[in-house]
Design goal:
Chain lengths: 118, 404
């Protein structure tokens, strides 16, 4: 499997991997480890703005890279259940094979679950 | 000829631990092949017996034939050159099935065989043959009693590999051969592509009818192999095993494999096998020590499961499943620094778990998160220590990312 430079970078050093705790932190997850893909997001929202985001993922390199990117890009944005970029744009940016589209939709589900978990 | 030591030209390259996939050509073999290719007197067609050029090439081919035969306990006239073990497997399976089609159309093999055996069997099923796929135990070993129970009056061939390419498990070919002999001498084919230099082979003593060999798994060239065709009848009333050839045109190799022989290729295979025989004893002991060092290092990470029998395996192959990491990510993380094989077959963007490990009862996840380490002549203690350090770092990192 070949990965583009962006995927290699975010997979190799996913700086937003981890968990959050404290006031205003919400958590959501989607997928299933036994089925090969599981993603969790922790988001901290202050006055309607995302101030921090972290992710955990048992997943392929594309999924880890996209989740890391989503958590990074969301900081400072208005808290919304929609991803900072839509799934199609993420698939293109990270050169995710069409067969893996379902895995990126799991990221979208996990993100929505976190933002609607309160 | 002095033994050469394989050493990577570039120490910055990933550590090569995929010798079960292929091996580098031994420098002595490469040099000898180049000599043959550059020769002005040995370039003739080995089948041209009317002049010295052909005779010289034929002499090289026959020397190589003897070297291959000597290394596996066979007679030179039992060696049929092929392009590799895949062609040898195809020739054995289709050749027997076609020749004995009026005697029966049942074949027995195992779920853990190489695709070069399974795919011809599946093709025969499409053509109307029946195939029984034996299931190994949790360590990858076949029960000879299950083979005995599967044999039928219309069974024309049993095809069982010697050393498994994924898990290194060695089947008891002697016991399997004895069962086949007791059952009216049903023909036995053995895929021994992984065996040379790793485990001693006595083709004559094992009671095997057909055996596939590969050059490139034993520091020889790719594109060369052989099918050993026994000249004994192993007690059968209908005598020695017969094959219908797959290709025609020239009658080379006693009519079993038509086509002009690639002299330099078979010379390379012959020398590679001779060298493997010469160094086998010391190499097996050295590799066993390295495998133990690797296993101790990997198992210290925790959550590492060994796949395949430890008592009935070659030391050159160590297959492990690693808990808490996803298979594709594991391979992607280590592959820039470490050349190993994964337990998933990436035939598309979505990987498929190893059918061999699934046959042993491993879960889909653990089959995917497996790695096969293939140790070989060029492997050093430093390589092993590097591999353990790389794996330790990347597994820890991926487990953290996964929250495991």
């Amino acid at each position: 499997m070949k990965y583009n430079e962006l995927t290699r970078r975010y997979f190799g050093a996913p700086s937003t991997a981890g968990i959050l705790s404290g006031p205003g932190v919400m958590r959501g997850a989607a997928g299933n480890r036994e089925r090969g893909t599981w993603v969790q997001f922790d988001v901290q929202v202050v006055s309607g703005t995302l101030t921090a985001a972290r992710f955990l993922a048992f997943a392929c390199p594309h999924t880890i890279a996209v989740a890391a990117f989503v958590a990074e890009q969301a900081i400072g944005a208005t808290a919304t259940a929609r991803l900072p970029q839509d799934v199609r744009a993420l698939v293109e940016r990270f050169a995710v094979p069409e067969e893996k589209l379902g895995r990126i939709l799991i990221i979208e589900d996990a993100w929505a679950a976190a933002l609607t978990s309160h | 000829m002095s033994r050469s030591v394989y050493a990577p030209e570039n120490p910055q390259r990933p550590v090569y631990l995929d010798h079960a996939a292929t091996t580098p050509v031994d420098p002595c073999v490469a040099a000898r092949m180049a000599e043959v290719l550059n020769s002005h007197s040995e370039f003739g067609n080995p089948a041209s017996s009317s002049h010295d050029y052909g005779d010289a090439a034929n002499a090289l081919v026959e020397t190589a034939r003897r070297q291959v035969a000597d290394s596996v306990g066979a007679s030179p006239d039992e060696v049929v050159w092929t392009s590799g073990a895949t062609e040898a497997n195809n020739l054995a399976i289709f050749g027997v099935a076609q020749y004995y089609r009026d005697s029966g159309r049942h074949i027995i093999t195992a779920r853990t065989e190489h695709k070069a055996v399974l795919d011809p069997c599946r093709e025969l099923e499409r053509r109307g043959w029946r195939v029984t796929y034996l299931v190994p135990d949790g360590e990858g070993l076949l029960d000879p009693d299950e083979l005995a129970a599967a044999l039928r009056p219309d069974t024309v061939l049993v095809s069982i590999m010697h050393v498994n390419n994924e898990i290194g498990v060695v089947q008891d070919i002697g016991a399997i051969g004895a069962i086949c002999a007791r059952h009216g001498g049903v023909r036995l084919h053995v895929d021994a592509a992984q065996s040379v230099g790793k485990r001693a082979i006595d083709f004559t003593g094992l009671g095997v009818d057909l055996m596939s060999l590969s050059a490139h798994k034993a520091y020889g060239p790719k594109g060369a192999g052989a099918l050993l065709v026994s000249k004994r009848g192993t007690g059968r009333q209908d005598g020695r095993v017969q094959l219908t050839p797959l290709q025609y045109g020239g009658g080379q190799e006693r009519g079993l494999r038509a086509g002009t022989l690639a002299t330099h290729q078979v010379v390379g295979m012959g020398l590679a096998f001779a060298l493997a025989l010469e160094t086998a004893e010391s190499e097996i002991a050295r590799i066993a020590r390295l495998q133990e060092r690797l296993w101790q290092g990997l198992s210290s990470m925790g959550g590492v499961l060994r796949n395949g029998s430890t008592r009935h395996g070659v030391p050159h192959v160590l297959n492990v499943s690693i808990e808490g990491v996803e298979g594709e990510s594991l391979l992607a993380a280590v592959s820039p620094q470490l050349a190993v094989s994964t337990g998933s077959a990436c035939t598309s963007a979505l990987s498929e778990p190893s059918y061999v490990l699934r046959s042993l009862g491993r879960s889909e996840r653990l089959s995917e998160s497996s790695l096969r380490f293939g140790l070989g002549r060029g492997t050093s203690e430093r390589d092993i220590d590097q591999a353990v350090a790389i794996l330790g770092y990347q597994v820890s990192r991926l487990r953290q990312v996964a929250g495991a």
